[in-house]
Structures are given as C-alpha cells and as structure tokens.
Write a structure and sequence with these properties.
Number of helices: 2
Number of strands: 6
Oligomer: single chain
Order of helices and strands: EEHEEHEE
Bound molecules: flavin mononucleotide
Strand content: 15-25%
Helix content: under 10%
C-alpha cells in the first residue's frame, strides 16, 4: 500500500489464501493494521528473507514509520500501484514441481514455526472432479 510519503508498506500475512479458482487472493487482517487499506500486492519471501519479513510486522514508531522496511529489497509492481519483493517471483511458465524445487515456498506454521516447502506432489484429484 502507498503511504503518505510515497513509500510502500509491507507486512507478513499468514492468513492469506487464493479466493476461488481464478487469479484472486485475499487475506485476513485486523482494521488496526495499515496494511488493511487499499490496493495490495502479494510476494512470496524466500527462507533467506524470513527475518526481514518478520521485522516488517513491527509496530510503528512515534513518527508512524517502520524502519525495518528498508531491509527488504523491492521492485515496482507492473499492474498495481505497489511493490514486490525482489527475487521472489513465481514463474507461471514453469511446471509447479520445478518452481517449488528452485524457489521453496516459505510457509508459516502457526503458532510459531516456519518451513520451506520444496518437495511437492501432484494432488490426486478424483477423476470426476472439476473446479
Ligand atoms: C509470521 C506473521 C504472520 C502474520 N500474519 C498476519 C495475518 O495473517 N493477519 C494480520 O492481520 N496480521 C498478521 N501479522 C501481523 C502483521 O504482519 C503486522 O503486524 C501488521 O500488518 C502491522 O503493520 P501495518 O500497520 O503496517 O499493517 C503477522 C505477523 C507475523 C510475524
């Protein structure tokens, strides 16, 4: 989300999920968080970025700033007014098994652990299943 000083806010959200079977995402957020308002982008941090991603959840300072955001390298998003974490792109042109193997998914396991998911298997859908 764009801030008043034209910087962008970032915050980790573990209660995030696809919304339906099209390309839509949503997340659960308390209205007390600045990240609850406006347009948002979705980035998938790498395991090597877990500490900086966690620091991005820090409470605001007196000047309503979040200095830890300076630790995260970002690039402008192309279709929304926002930024994406650098080096965290999911490549839609590659098979999902290869993507996860090369770019393990950082996953938060409530209440207080995380994992990097790199070994994945195709889900055994029922033959008549359809979205
Ligand atoms: C691992 C982790 C997961 C989090 N998941 C959520 C979440 O799903 N929903 C939420 O509202 N806040 C979540 N938070 C808290 C927010 O990241 C953060 O504290 C909040 O957005 C404050 O920043 P803001 O005022 O700039 O939005 C999480 C924090 C951590 C460390």
């Amino acid at each position: 989300m764009r801030e008043e000083d034209d910087s962008f806010d970032l915050a980790p959200k573990h209660m995030a999920m696809p919304m339906g079977w099209e390309n839509r995402s949503g997340f659960v957020c308390t209205p007390r968080h600045a990240a609850c308002e406006g347009v948002f982008t979705v980035s998938f941090p790498r395991g090597s970025q877990v500490l900086f991603a966690s620091l991005a959840s820090a409470p605001r300072c007196e000047e309503d700033t979040k200095p830890a955001l300076g630790l995260l390298t970002t690039r402008p998003a192309t279709t929304a007014d926002g930024v994406l974490l650098e080096d965290a792109r999911r490549d839609p042109d590659r098979g999902p098994a290869d993507v996860f193997a090369d770019n393990p998914l950082l996953s938060y396991l409530a209440p207080g652990r995380y994992a990097e998911v790199r070994d994945t298997l195709a889900f055994p859908f029922d033959a008549g299943w359809s979205s």
